[in-house]
Fold this sequence. Notes:
Blueprint: H1 4-21, H2 25-31, H3 45-50, H4 54-70, H5 75-95, H6 103-118, H7 138-156, H8 159-179, H9 183-203, H10 206-221, H11 224-244, H12 248-261, H13 265-282, H14 286-295, H15 307-323, H16 327-343, H17 347-363, H18 367-383, H19 387-403, H20 407-433
Keywords: Cell cycle, Cell division, Chromosome partition, Mitosis, Nucleus
InterPro entries: MAU2, TPR-like_helical_dom_sf
Protein name: MAU2 chromatid cohesion factor homolog
Amino acid sequence: LFSFQQLHTLEKDLVSxxxxxxxxxxxxxxxxxxxxxSVPYPFFFPLLLMERKLQEVHPLLTLCGQIVENxxxxxxxxxxxxxxxxxxxVTHYLDAGQVKSVKPCLKQLQxxxxxxxxxxxxxxxxxxxxxxxxxxxxxxxxxxxxLVTVMxxxxxxxxxxxxxxxxxxxxxxxxxxxxDCSPILSSFQVILLEHIxxxxxxxxxxxxxxxxxxxxxxxxxxxxxxxxxxAAQLHTLxxxxxxxxxxxxxxxxxxxxxxxxxxxxxLWAFIVTNLASVYIREGNRHQELYSxxxxxxxxxxxxxxxxxxxxxxxxxxxLFSFFQGRYNEAKRFLRETLKMSNAEDLNRLTACSLVLxxxxxxxxxNHRESNNMVVPAMQLASKIPDMSVxxxxxxxxxxxxxxxxNAMDAHEAAQMHQNFSQQLLQDHIEACSLxxxxxxxxxxxxxxxxxxxxxxxxxxLASLL
Length: 465
């Protein structure tokens, strides 16, 4: 929530406050001389995370957890402090792309918010100024816990779970916004929508995703600050939508705009990875592609610490090697993706890697090994559910069973492929027919206020099928 210009001023204020509270020495012993008067409280987490001092965060996590647990005070104040600490801990893990590692902390956070919702706001008569710390109303905390749960579910590939918690959070937000005009509620709403939009694109609901992108635009029109904080994300979402409807020129323009608007390292890496996938699919952008791949080389000096993004970079390398016909190299990259995605339960990356490996083995004539990859890819994609991977897997299963003489299984796979194709085609036509589809041409200034309807889809689904 803070700008980088405010960080050092804020840090001085926090240190002064900590001196008044008589704390600080323990943290100085943990971190070192740079923060010689800092506090062993979680107030410094946002500063360290924003300044990307992740090595300093790790030793602080354990110490802060112990201090929060041992703190004696009003029960609702203690639970409020625990929620504050656990939200920062969970978002730290999610920022690092460690979806599996975060599960114990997320479970604690969910239990903590259940506890705090049962406590009554008794009048507080503090004997210590620290007892006055109350960072959010508990109704806002409930929405925030839903939000980080959605973030986790989306990264892990539990998209139905993400949908369930998004619905709950948005319903609670609507009730709160009728009584409370706090700007943080609009921020929560935008972040929730950003995540569920990505889920919709994966599950084959592009028309709904586009309408929700338009909703984010409308929210940002009401607040210049909100638009300033989320403009890059908005253009990134539009770029992902453009990929889903095969508008590659527009996708490139949207991602290029997003890169111009962001200074956030993880978002930058995410955008570059997706832009590389656009160049791979276009097939004639080798110079630009090589330049991008060099900047997100997972083998050498990867620019961010995110486990998830590094695994995705290996996948993009594997995809490019596949299109270049360098199959052994592609297999090496994809096996590294699988190793990393399995380690942290990144289910969608696992499904994508399995189906691409299955395709490679099919091209090489190793039908048995191809089947060993494609079948679990299909099962995992169905569980997510990921429409594109299901479409790809069903096409491979059809061809594999034909090649192996399994006519009945080939017919069943062909029928599945036809069903997925029809669903995607129908959704494609519906999305491109919406007036909001014209958002794909917006690359400068504030979001357009009005949309003009067009006669029908102007893009082809052929390459997706």
